[in-house]
Amino acid sequence: MSAFVRVSYADDTALCKEFLEQYAARTHGVRGRSEKKYAEVLQDISNRSARKVVIALDDLEDYFGKENADFVDRVKGNTRRYVTLFSDAVELALPPPTETHAVDDVFDVLTRQRTDTAEDNQDDANVRSVNSPNQLPKELTRRYEVLIVPNSMEKPIPLREVGAANVGKLVSIKGIVTRITDVKPLISVATYTCDSCGFEIYQQVTGNTYMPVTQCPTQECKTNNTRGSLFSQTRGSKFVKFQEMKIQEMSDNVPMGHIPRSLTVHLRGELTRSCGPGDVVVVSGIFLPVPYTGFKAMRAGLTADTFLEATSVEQVKKSYSEQVITADTRKRVEDFVMENDAYGRLARSIAPEIYGHEDIKKALLLLLVGGVTRQLPDGMKLRGDIHICLMGDPGVAKSQLLKHVTTVAPRAVYTTGRGSSGVGLTAAVTKDQMTGEMILEGGALVLADMGICCIDEFDKMEEGDRTAIHEVMEQQTVSIAKAGITTTLNARTTVLAAANPHWGRYDTRRSPAENIALPAALLSRFDLMWLILDKSDMEGDTALAQHVLHVHRTSRAPELDFDPLDAPTLRAYIAMSRQFNPSVPKELADYISAAYAEIRNEEASSEAPHSYTTARTLLSILRLGQALARLRFSEEVAQSDVDEALRLMKMSKISLYNDDRSTSARIDPITAIYSAIRDYAIRTSTLEVDYAKCVELITPKGYSQEQLKACLDEYKGLNVFTVTEDYDVLFGEDDLAAY
Question: FRET label pair with 78: which of 227, 269, 290, 381, CA 20 to 30 Å apart?
């Protein structure tokens, strides 16, 4: 058992002052020399260009070392006391300002007047010396706040492990923000004026509640035997910004069969507005108890509530616009762009543990990048987010793809259809525990604002709940009219849904519309509707089994022919690509409109149309093309981007409607390519089709140039047409006469 050591807080204040004045950072500053880190911060405080002093425990350990290790331990174990000591030390070590302010604010005028009054009355016997109620408090004159942050290498502890041993100490907790209040003023020092003696009375408020002073406690009123009434001076009081936040422990820290726990966090001053609902954060602060008040105290008895007084808030995954990309990461991304097939390699970097699904991974990559949101002069908005629905047989890794997207995206919410209601997806009306007012609490789609909402088991949702998504997917807002609250919330989110067919597994004896069993109004809002079928293929099944066995044996994906990008680098690549806002050039307008008209014509001429091609399909082509241009770091959409967008849409429809298990046999690629070239020659009444035009004809249909050359060689051998050295096709007049 360690011996009791008496601590002199005056000596510790001197140590704090010495540290602030003498500590020099080991790293070199901007000017190429070692600088006194905290001395510069104090100068900024004096010049009013900064409002907080962040004391890092790493710097304390670096400065005091093993000689004064007890001092660092005392700071960790009694943090709230040492915040006060460091505040006093900052006031003692504060240098004179080097910059002057031309205009004084209200705080300057009041401080000057109070200081002059205190100097005039310092010899007056009626005024007490130190503990007088009209003695000017230090908190009233300070323009700064002190925050102590833990070690940079210290890992956050699970929320369930925070207990009585951590009371009063500095702890770090990782969780997701579920609820946060508005920023409101919290009184720190209450000021009163006596109507009899004229003195100002100050009352420091340290807790959540306080009893206002009603009678003047000065010696003058007591001597004259007059009970002077006190009047609150709101302008002379000091208020700080205050925000209450609820964080919930991460799902991977919740034991089996338990529900997630929550903790209240108090944010003050400059820490307010540092995060929002849905953010995954690491919060460091002082774990403190607080007694219940009001009717809760009667029910609670001797028990008390706990909260965390935050000293630092760090977001685990920052948004694309807030990311700080290092020079090494930027160089790696730029080198990756210059490599061959960067688009394909980026797609293969998404979930490399999952076998195959290359085109689906390309679609998910475009979903992460997104298109450009257009704001028209009349206020109309054209969304740039790309919505994708993956529908397929069980066991084809739909949920795993959704989970991986949530790890890559900086802001993502994962939910399931059966566990989500319409209110849980949009917004719910609840009662605020602090004020008792009716407030709106955002659901999954609102929490995923400017992010991605992954909805698994989409087909298991109730029809009434699924209709709540319609407005979000196109208008990107949530309109609420409940409990007297009428408002519109932003839900600028990308929807990635996964669903099973209507009968659990795709039934080839029924039409695709019967298998999908989703309303046309909802299907038309998805940019890509992809069906993943579990096909029986000896060669493919063997390769899949070997891939899965390799992952289970080694706990990592098989080696690829390149180094795939990890999640942080992929996130940096997407952040850099989203800085571009590509537009469609005028010369591509006719090409896109002709392609859209051809899709509509094919659907109209089909005997059993199952697709839902609307004007939204045209916008989907534009969004996919813009996302592809962003991946190339280009400000202009190229024809190759439009061709790739058309190919992805064609592949998604082929997977939907031309399954190998369908009763009608699929046309082989050689015949399909020949039919496309022949139909073009007949339609345009031309006998010569150059190679570039042939590529343009087959690319949207999902065929490669190797298949095109194989088709030309085969039909050339059959003397159907003539092929030049440049692979241009020459028909004879008799070749097309029969058609």
Answer: 269
d(CA 387, CA 94): 55
- Collapsing DSSP to helix, strand or coil, 736 comes out as coil
- Taking each helix axis from N to C end, the angle separating 79-93 and 37-46, rounded to the nearest 10 degrees, works out to 70
CA 606, 610, 615: angle at the middle one, nearest 5? 90
Phi, psi of 573 (to 5 degrees): -60, -45
DSSP 150-208: --TTPPPBPGGG--GGGTTSEEEEEEEEEEEPPPEEEEEEEEEEETTT--EEEEE--SS
> How do residues 282-325 score in pLDDT, each as one tens digit?
999 999 888 887 777 777 778 888 899 999 998 887 767 666 77
Query: Does 665 score more than 70 pLDDT?
Result: no
**The Cα angle at residue 627 between residues 622 and 629, in degrees rounded to 5:** 95
Rounded to the nearest 10 degrees, what angle do helices 398-408 and 358-369 cross at?
30
Q: Report the alpha-carbon distance of residue 420 to residue 401 in Å, rounded.
A: 20
What is the tens place of the pLDDT at every residue in 571-588?
888 888 888 889 888 888
Average pLDDT over residues 472-481: 80
Q: What is the mean pLDDT of the chain?
A: 80
Q: How far apart are CA 357 and CA 652, in angstroms?
A: 12
What is the spatial distance between Cα 707 and Cα 246, in angstroms, rounded to a whole number? 58
Closest CA relative to residue 150, chosen from 381, 335, 12, 308? 308
Residue 323, classed as helix, strand or coil, is coil
Selected residue with higher pLDDT from 482 and 73: 73
Q: Which amino acid is at 174?
A: K
Tell me what pLDDT residue 127 has. Answer: 44
Range with the poorest average pLDDT among 117-126, 397-406, 476-485, 717-726: 117-126
One-letter amino acid for residue 359 of the chain? D
Q: State the Cα–Cα distance between residues 142 and 155, nearest whole angstrom.
A: 33
- The H or E element that residue 349 is part of is none
Coil, helix or strand for 105? Answer: coil
Of residues 144, 133, 138, the one with CA closest to residue 191: 133
600: CB partners within 8 A, 6+ apart: 613
Length of the chain equals: 739
Does residue 132 have a pLDDT over 50?
yes
Give CA–CA dist 280/647, Å, rounded. 37
Strand partners for 487: 480
How far the first Cα of the chain sits from its last, in Å, is 102
Q: What is the pLDDT of residue 119?
A: 62
* Secondary element (H or E) of residue 730: strand 729-730
Task: Give 65's contacts (C-beta < 8 A, 6+ positions apart).
Answer: none
Q: Is the CB of residue 515 less than 8 Å from the CB of residue 500? A: no
Q: Which residues pair with 457 in a beta bridge?
A: none
Nearest of 439, 428, 320 to residue 368 by alpha carbon = 320
Burial of 75 (0-12, 13-18, 19+ CB in 10 A): buried
Strands (E), 467-602: 477-482, 485-490, 494-499, 528-532
Bridge partners of 397, per DSSP, are none
Residue 634's pLDDT band, with cuts at 50, 70 and 90, is: confident
Cα torsion 587, 590, 595, 597 to 10°: value is: 170
Tell me the residue type at 554: T
